[in-house]
Amino acid sequence: MSKTIAILTGGGDCPGLNAVIRGVVRAASRRDWRVLGIRDGFDGLVGEPRWIELDKKAVSGILQRGGTILGTSNRGNPFSYPVEQDGKTELRDVSQTVVDNFRKIGADALIAVGGDGTLKIARQLGRLGIPVVGVPKTIDNDLKGTDVTFGYNTAVGIVTEALDRLHSTAESHHRVMVVEVMGRDAGWIALESGIAGSADVILIPEIPYRIDKVCAAIRRRSESGHLFSIVVVAEGATSASGDKVVQLTADQNLGVERLGGVGHQVAREIETCLDLDMELRTVVLGHVQRGGTPSPFDRILSSRFGVKAVQLIEQGGFGKMVALHGRKIAFVDINDAVGQLNLIDPEGELVEAAEELGIMVGR
Ligand code: F6P
């Protein structure tokens, strides 16, 4: 039976989104299904619906492109949507408009490509009667239910390359280079790229750091003749006695806390406790980690996720999400993927490997 499926990309963008869209469209067109691409995440279903027809021509040449051809938003939660009235912004529940618009455009199913926030909204919309399936995305790799999210592999590659480049300049100038990377709640990017890029110190949200231990590690390195150090800090890392460093609180930023600045904080702290004549520099990699072309691993994973999302709809597997388990694509309940984050086990093998390699993790 012919179907019309809608697809949207929500939350922060991530390399591989276009590969998912292309996979969905190619698999759908083999079934003679129609695909509608919703603009700017759930925003495209608030107000007058905004969408584009996605046929094979529309997705030609996008496999290797970063970002999302549909646009995205990490502000457009229809259950708590910013609405302007009398010069003031209020958060309102506009979810019924989304349901009405979904019906109005004639869609039979919705593919929501996103992280924890987007998939939570998808789950709620499922309860309101929209048949949804999920595709897990985030460079942070903090989503449960899948071994890995797409976008993460690319981000680790970008950070690793940056660390390689920073090594030569740090070494030449005998400096401590503090590198802030993304990772709000989970330190996967920091830990894995830190291992791949031979960092000396890696600070992650899962292990509150002690700055005296960080300084002692840099001093030990210097005494053994290594006159430079690379310190990788996840943006959500906190000191044992402190809180996350935020640029904007959730109240100041329509419900979304904006992190950033911990790299500068760590550099200042090192300056005060390091009794060596070493200069420090801070590098914030920021959105560079999310931009540009996906790695081959992410192109393949995203393409497989897109194809499997179509198969999931064909099987009527609504309320489920595609996932990678080992080397196979599996289907899991969206419920099992959201709410709880996939964090690094401080006592797990990966942290142990880092420590065995001589990397200091802040404790
Ligand atoms: O969730 C992915 C992520 O890259 C986080 O690590 C980061 O805090 C956030 O997105 C930043 O998003 P933006 O600046 O686009 O709001």
Report on the structure:
There is one protein chain. This protein starts with a strand and ends in a 7-residue tail after the last helix. It has 363 residues and is of the alpha/beta class. The model has no long low-confidence stretch (mean pLDDT 96). Strands 3-2-1-6-7-14-15 form a 7-stranded mixed beta sheet, sandwiched between helices. Helices cover 34% and strands 20% of the residues. It is built from 10 helices and 15 strands. It has 2 domains: 191 residues, 3-Layer(aba) Sandwich (Rossmann fold); 138 residues, Phosphofructokinase domain (Rossmann fold). The site of 6-O-phosphono-beta-D-fructofuranose has 12 residues, from loops.
Features:
binds 6-O-phosphono-beta-D-fructofuranose, 363 residues, elongated, 2 domains, Rossmann fold, single chain, 7-stranded mixed beta sheet, alpha/beta
Bound molecules: 6-O-phosphono-beta-D-fructofuranose
SSE string, helices as H and strands as E = EHEEEEHEHEHEHEHEEEHEHEEHH
* Rg result: 22 Å
Order of strands across the biggest sheet?
A: 3-2-1-6-7-14-15
Taking all residues together, what is the mean pLDDT? Answer: 96
Q: How many strands appear in the DSSP assignment? A: 15
Rough outline? elongated
- CATH class group of the largest domain: Alpha Beta
- CATH architecture heading of the largest domain: 3-Layer(aba) Sandwich
Estimate the helix proportion, in percent: 25-40%
Helix count equals 10
Kindly name the structural category.
alpha/beta
Largest sheet: 7 strands, mixed
Which band does the percent of strand residues land in?
Answer: 15-25%
Stretches where pLDDT is under 50 for at least 5 consecutive residues are none
- Tally of structural domains: 2
CATH T-level fold name of the largest domain = Rossmann fold
Which oligomeric form is depicted? Answer: single chain
For the record, give the distance between the C-alpha atoms at the N and C termini, rounded to a whole number: 59 Å
